[in-house]
Amino acid sequence: MSVNPRNSQQSSLMQEPEQQATESTQTKIPRLDQKKHWWRSTRAGYAFAFPIVALGIGLNLLRAYLLPHLYFPTAFLLIAILCISLGWGVGPGLLAILLSCAALIYFYLAPFLHLSFLDFDAGLFFHILPFAIESLAVVFIIRQLKKTRQRELEITRTARDQAEHLADVNEQLKEANQLKDFFLSIASHELKTPITTIRGEAQLALRRLNKLGASLPEATAFRGVLTRVDEQTIRLTNLVNDLLHLSSLRSQKLELDIQPCNLNEICTRAVEEQCLLSKRPINLMLPSPAIQLQADPARLGQVMTNLTNNALKYSPVESEVGVEVRREQDVAHIEVRDAGQGIPPEQMASIFQPFFRTEEARASTVSGTGLGLAICKEIIDQHHGRIWCESTVGQGSTFFVELPLIP
Ligand code: ADP
């Protein structure tokens, strides 16, 4: 039975390359701990209100002298109030309004109404009221603007702090990851020698036992034990090799040997090898003409071997396994299909994680380290390609690989 991934309902997962490196924002934001200059304090604002209002009056008197026909006495005072409110806030702004009202009464209204400055007249109050309302409105609007700006600054500052914090955490994670890879590569390296020695000794003992023949009464039992030791050391060797491989790939120690290569040939070699080893047929479909691309042929062969091997491992012996290669616009597209047990959707997100094996795989007799797909993903990522899987439980799985075709 072959699986058509486009027709069946499938759970899918696209493994995108990890996104790292959170950069802090470049916006210039005043820091909270920045020192405030003395002249920006509210107290200084009250003090500055006097000369600024005086300057407004002075300019107005100058205007009256130079341009007597242009009558608009409150303009300079409003500008003075605006500047004071902008610079120092509501308190100094209100003081500026008071000073401006007093100045207006003294210089304009009292002479105009033929009153002395100290004579209280209700009329004075009504004359000055529009200016007072106008000025209060200006102060109020500026207060609101400043509040909004303040809130904006706080939000930006919080965002910047969080971005900086995230960048720090990201850096720490990167360091921890590098340390883990370093530890893995050292541990795997150190494990290699004793494992090889154990295997060598077990094989030597097996050969000696075989020479002694059946003369020893417990020969069969010993042979069984030594064979199991040999098998387990092979498993350990594979695991250590996979670990070394993954850590070298991740730490970029293992450089790709990029060269022009023939994808048809790479896939044919891997599929033929798996057919021979498993003694099962594999349906291979290749495009004509063959796909040429810039890649590391050995690593791509490793990916194809692992995907085909998995398809064979996790599907019944009598079921069909298919590999299809085709050209799609500017990518080479590879599909490895099987009609096996499939992968449950909730476990799908983890299959490219190192050491992950589905519950079904762990419960079965199929051996594995859970490192093969992680290695495949690392190799495909380094080729700037994509690898993902679609699967339906009980119907089978299809692994997809896309590689950019560099002209
Ligand atoms: P392993 O050595 O266990 O095969 P892999 O990294 O190659 O490790 O695969 C990780 C896990 O993904 C496997 O243990 C298995 O549970 C699941 N898996 C991989 N390929 C298939 C497949 N074709 N069908 C079903 N499950 C699969």
Bound molecules: adenosine-5'-diphosphate
Rg of Cα set? 41 Å
Number of helices: 10
Q: End-to-end span in angstroms?
A: 37 Å
- Range of strand content: 5-15%
- Please tell me what the overall shape is: elongated
Describe the structure.
It is elongated and about 140 Å long. α1 packs parallel to α3, α4 (122-212) packs antiparallel against α5 and α5 (219-250) packs parallel to α10. It has helices spanning 42-66, 75-88, 90-113, 122-212, 219-250, 263-278, 297-313, 345-348, 359-363, 372-382; strands at 11-15, 259-262, 282-285, 292-295, 321-328, 331-338, 386-392, 396-404. With 407 residues, the chain is an alpha+beta fold. It has a 6-stranded mixed β-sheet with strand order 1-7-8-6-5-3. The chain has a two-stranded antiparallel ribbon with strand order 2-4. The model is unreliable at 1-27 (pLDDT under 50). The chain starts with 10 loop residues before the first strand and ends with a strand. The longest helix has 91 residues, at 122-212. Adenosine-5'-diphosphate (ADP) is lined by residues 306, 310-311, 314, 338, 340-341, 343, 351, 356-358, 361, 368-374, 397.
